[in-house]
Amino acid sequence: MKSEVNIHFLQQSFFDFTEDDMALHISKIEKIEKQLNDAGSIVRENQLQRRKGHYRTSHLDCAWKLV
Question: The organism sits in which domain of life (predicted)?
Answer without folding.
Answer: Eukaryota
